[in-house]
Amino acid sequence: MNTKVKTLTTVSALLLAMALVTACGDTNKTASGGNQPAVNNAGANNQGNAAPGDSEADNSKNKGDQGNTSTDHSGADNTGSSEEGTGPDMAAASDVNSVAVLVNKEFALPDDYNPSDLVYPNVRFTFKEKIEKRMMRSEAAKALENLFDGAEKDGIYLAGVSAYRSHKTQTALFNRYVERDGEEKAKTYSAVPGHSEHETGLAIDVSGSDGKCAAEDCFGDTKEADWLANHASEYGFIIRYPEGKDSITGYKYEPWHIRYVGVDIASEIADRGITLEEYYGSIPVTANP
Ligand SMILES: [Zn+2]
């Protein structure tokens, strides 16, 4: 009955059904197509209401373009390291204090993790309140300011939609989804607490300044998304969940979700058209608690 996934193989469809969750889980995405508004979660008010509910988690809109494989990274000046020569710093992958920490469906942050250097980046957001989801770790915040400035010089006006999300907030969100839909179903559209990259303070969902298509698939067709795909790495950010990498990242294409990793790593990832997972290669799943 579902003709819109007919371009997917059975295996892919299964993978989508089983593996894909919504990385930016505050978007009130529902696998059931329901549209109940997110209610306020205690302690961290209104973290869940920025993005409109977006489409169901199928990924049928393939454009066949990774978007960033030919990224010009003129800003990739050296800061002393040489990734190609020495390989990735594997310790950074599991170091929660590193801006290159790897957080995904396998690797979680510790339950008690709270970034110590959160600040409010001085950039436009789609909302006015000075609340948790406006915050990022200081190095990422500074880089984000530079990125927004660079975009504006090219006539691209970006806005932040949702950045940091505390473990407490993610837990409240997830628990609410579990209550509503059951744990198995909740996992298909919301990140399990500890596994959301938003908890690092290094990731942010962005949109155009008009807020249209915020955290929705249609953002991929905007000039803002195009600019990000081509320039984010110059400022140390990567498109964390590129198109066609679902089976590696565990997430469908999210052109709006950018992650700070530093210019060196971002440039290498963009140049090679890879993901953060591929950058680190195979990592034992038992590395983190
Ligand atoms: Zn996100």
Overview of the structural elements:
The protein is of the alpha+beta class and 289 residues long. The protein has helices at 10-19, 83-86, 90-93, 138-153, 167-181, 183-189, 223-231, 246-249, 263-272, 276-280; strands at residues 118-119, 136-137, 158-162, 203-208, 237-241, 254-260. It has a domain at 92-169 and 197-289: 2-Layer Sandwich (Muramoyl-pentapeptide Carboxypeptidase, domain 2). Helix content is 29%, strand content 9%. It has a 4-stranded antiparallel beta sheet. The protein has a two-stranded antiparallel sheet with strand order 1-2. The longest helix is centred in the middle third of the chain and has 16 residues, at 138-153. Bound molecules: zinc ion. Zinc ion binds next to strand 4.
Topology readout:
Elements: H1 10-19, H2 83-86, H3 90-93, E1 118-119, E2 136-137, H4 138-153, E3 158-162, H5 167-181, H6 183-189, E4 203-208, H7 223-231, E5 237-241, H8 246-249, E6 254-260, H9 263-272, H10 276-280
Antiparallel strand pairs: 1-2, 3-4, 4-6, 5-6
